[in-house]
Amino acid sequence: MKSKRTNKAMTLEQLGEAAECLRTIAHPHRLRILQLINVGRHTVGDLANECGIASPVASNHLRLMERSGLLTSQRDGKCIFYQIADPYLSPILACLESRFG
Fold this sequence. Notes:
The chain is mainly alpha-helical. The protein has helices at 12-25, 28-38, 44-51, 55-67, 89-100, and strands at residues 71-76, 79-84.
């Protein structure tokens, strides 16, 4: 069953929010981090290793995405694990993977 699309245009404010979200994820390392987190919990060190970047760089990317509401974090002992907070990110990532993967 196909979903119905409405012809209702988004407001300029909504488009601004969408643009800000896209600006936040529009970086190869951030997209890779999101891909990894989308399939499971990861620490900063795990993500840095998988992306081939230094831990402080990964931390900066994670903080930016967490401040934007895209991610949440949870402390478990000395480790902090990150998860996707925005339920719309998974379909966006799936779309990107279908188009460019």
